[in-house]
Each structure stands twice: as C-alpha cells, then as structure tokens.
Task: structure prediction
Amino acid sequence: MTITIALPSKGRMKEDASAIFERAGMTISAVGNDRSYRGRVEGWDDVEIAFLSASEISREIGNGTVDFGVTGEDLMREGFAEVDKRVEFCARLGFGHADVVVAVPEIWLDVDTMADLVDVAADFRARHGRRLAIATKYWRLTQQFFSSQHGIQLYRIVESLGATEGAPASGSADIIVDITSTGSTLRANHLKVLQDGIILHSQACLVRARKESHTDEPAVQAIIEAVRTAL
Ligand SMILES: Nc1ncnc2c1ncn2[C@@H]1O[C@H](COP(=O)(O)OP(=O)(O)OP(=O)(O)O)[C@@H](O)[C@H]1O
Ligand SMILES: O=P(O)(O)OC[C@H]1O[C@H](OP(=O)(O)OP(=O)(O)O)[C@H](O)[C@@H]1O
Result:
C-alpha cells in the first residue's frame, strides 16, 4: 500500500514541517524539479509526499484522500465536526503556535470574561435593536464555544476572510474570534482577549486519517514513531 503524507508547500509551516521529517530520518526530495508538488522519501519506497497548503491539507486528511498530514489543529477542528472520529492527532509538533480567541474592544471596560459577554449578548437587542455581531472565519469553533459551552444563543456571525481585527472599528461587527500569536494585531486594533476567551491553543500537528487499511500496515506506525522521536 502507498501511504501519502501531505506537507505544507508554502506558508509559515513549510520549513518547520520539512525539518521535522529530516530529523525523523525521512529525507524528502521533490519528484522531478523543485517546483513539483510531489515528493518521495529516501529509503521509504511506499511513502509519497503531496505538497499542499495548510488549509488544503486539513481538508484532504478529513476526507481521507491522504493518509497523514501536517497542519494546524485549528484548521482540522474548524473544518470537520466530530473530528476526533475521523482523524487521530498523532503528535503536536511544537511550531505553528497560535490561539483562537474571543476579543472585544478595549473600551468595553465592564467586559472581561465570557460571563460578562453573556450579559452583553442578552441585552444587546434591547439596547441596539440587533443581535451581537461576531466577525470570524472560525464559524464552527465560534458556534461550539458560544452556543454549546457558554449557552449564548443571541448572536450573529459575520463571515470575515481577512482583516478580521478591523471589523469592530469599521462597524461590520462588535467583537471577533480570530487567531493570535504575538498579540500585536489585536493591540494595534484596540482589542483585548477575554480572560476565559481562549477557544483553542493550536499548533502544527501530525494528523492521520482513520482508515481501515492502516490497521495491518506496519509503515503507518513506523511513520508515527519516526516523527515522535524527532520531537
Ligand atoms: N500568526 C499566525 N497567523 C495565522 N496563522 C497562524 C499564525 N501562527 C500560526 N498559524 C497557523 O498557521 C496555519 C495557517 O497557515 P497558512 O496561513 O500558511 O495556511 P493556509 O491557510 O493554507 O494559507 P493560505 O491562506 O495562504 O491558503 C493555521 O493552522 C494557523 O493556526
Ligand atoms: O498575534 P499576531 O502575531 O499579530 O498574529 C495574528 C495575525 O496574523 C495572522 O494574519 P496574517 O497577516 O499572518 O495573515 P493571514 O490571516 O492571511 O494568515 C492572523 O490572521 C492575525 O491577523
């Protein structure tokens, strides 16, 4: 059986992902020229590498089109409901750290916790004639956190595909759910993270699609062990 591992072809995770495999004794070379989107691993004839973007990788693992991939936990959890039934998070790789957080305008002085936000959401329609608007590209994580974990039902998600932190200032939303690493984008936009507003501590992971065919395949376990020893 050929095992396909999807690795980032570009972006912030590319170099670190290749370095981990190198340390794991799995040296990757491109098939054909350097711009090829296929690779192989020296000494692992049954393994092939597919180079894709981090968001494509999460989709392909979730669909089972590839066997393994390196991508952010946030992208996996946002992309699929009940993701742990579809995939196994085999290893956290120690790079690509970012938190998915709830952030509100700094000038909301009385709002520091999710409990405070519950009160704001409940009063919002009476005060403003509309529901609290949340800008995000993480609509699944937002719904799980707001509705299931905190019982907030009265809100509206405004889909944002970029510059989410600018939404409260521009008036397109009241608060945001987005990723932060250094916090500088939030600060620059006068937003603060709620004390218990961290939805997910994300980092790059080695993720495996749960497939029947993996059960009797020694190479599957060998890949997981090789990567774990490199951490
Ligand atoms: N500062 C950061 N900003 C955004 N994402 C970050 C940051 N730090 C780490 N990440 C992680 O990087 C991953 C996204 O990587 P990247 O932007 O390279 O992928 P992509 O979404 O596939 O790219 P593109 O949007 O260009 O197609 C996510 O898992 C995210 O959690
Ligand atoms: O906490 P910080 O270190 O400021 O990082 C957070 C910011 O970085 C990312 O945007 P980026 O400009 O990298 O573009 P992207 O959203 O297209 O990935 C992310 O969407 C945040 O806006």
Notes: Residues 11-13, 53-55, 72, 74-75, 96, 98, 179, 181, 202 surround adenosine-5'-triphosphate (ligand 1) (CB under 6 Å).
